[in-house]
Specification:
The chain is mainly α. It has 14 helices and no strands.
């Protein structure tokens, strides 16, 4: 009995020691991760505070995490043409939502048959998609096709269709779809389900992590794109947010480089305006990322590792 009691006491001490080591490990692990997250947030906090700082204060004291002289002059300048800014926000939100949905639909419908082993053109189609990652027609032929043949210039569709299909996203989805057991699809076929019903009711729900990841990629592409608007959009009512901010930044840089041309005019808060535009551009995407982050890593790792 005494031996058993001694053994039990030793086991309890060992468990307590392991528990203490585990708590210490978790303390340093979570503490280190929290510190790393704080360092990652510091640049964003610096941008926000700089956008709220008086321009002369920025020029005199530089950037700081707490504004020495609070000012909304940068946002006042940016929102001076508020109607155009709101219209550009609406255009960007519309093309982001529509583009993401259409891009997900097209890419997934292209990737799904490529993942099926019973599809005869699986390998040629995969090679064709992969080939477009290495070579493309170039800017001039694309511009001619879009403007002269498709007649999409000065329409919202040109901002959507230019990013609808992405070869990397198609291959990523194909790899994820290939991990879905064939027995599920065969069982659905025995129950009389068609191909579209199998895809939308069985395959798509199981591929939610991959679809959410690709959806986030599409969202970032459409939200940040301004080059397509530079090429194809002349109507100011169709200007997306990013291109409007680029035009605003270009005009500010022109005024900085040509002070004689702007003599007698109001001084533009250049640096704080840059930060304010960064806040306006990044803010909505930061909120959206919070809802997609739980799918992000899982969708990338599972879709990229398994085959």
């Amino acid at each position: 009995m005494q031996t058993d009691a001694t053994h039990l006491i030793q086991l309890n001490r060992t468990a307590a020691a392991h528990s203490a080591k585990e708590r210490l490990f978790h303390f340093f692990l979570y503490g280190g991760l929290s510190l790393f997250a704080l360092f990652c947030l510091l640049p964003l906090a610096l941008v926000v505070t700089s956008s709220l700082t008086e321009e002369t204060t920025l020029a005199k004291y530089g950037y700081s995490l707490w504004p020495k002289e609070l000012s909304l002059s940068a946002y006042t300048y940016v929102f001076r043409n508020g109607e155009q800014l709101l219209a550009s926000y609406g255009v960007t939100a519309l093309i982001t939502v529509l583009g993401t949905l259409i891009g997900l639909l097209v890419c997934s419908l292209l990737a799904y048959p490529m993942s099926r082993k019973d599809f005869r053109l699986r390998n040629p189609l995969s090679f064709y998609v992969f080939f477009t990652m290495l070579f493309n027609g170039g800017l001039v032929p694309t511009y001619i096709i879009v403007t002269q043949f498709l007649h999409l210039k000065d329409t919202l569709w040109v901002l959507i269709f230019t990013h609808t299909v992405n070869a990397f996203y198609v291959l990523l989805l194909r790899t994820f779809f290939a991990t879905i057991p064939d027995s599920l699809i065969e069982s659905a076929k025995l129950e009389g389900a068609g191909e579209f019903r199998i895809f939308f009711q069985i395959v798509a729900p199981l591929a939610t992590p991959a679809l959410a990841t690709v959806g986030l990629f599409f969202t970032l592409i459409y939200w940040n794109d301004w080059f397509q608007a530079l090429l194809y959009i002349d109507n100011r009512s169709l200007l997306p947010l990013q291109y409007l901010l680029v035009m605003l930044m270009t005009s500010i840089e022109f005024m900085d480089l040509n002070p004689n041309a702007t003599s007698g005019m109001e001084m533009v808060p250049t640096e704080s305006v840059r930060m304010a535009m960064a806040v306006l551009a990044v803010g909505p995407m930061s909120v959206i990322y919070l809802f997609f982050q739980k799918f992000f890593v899982r969708g990338l790792t599972v879709g990229a590792v398994k085959s």
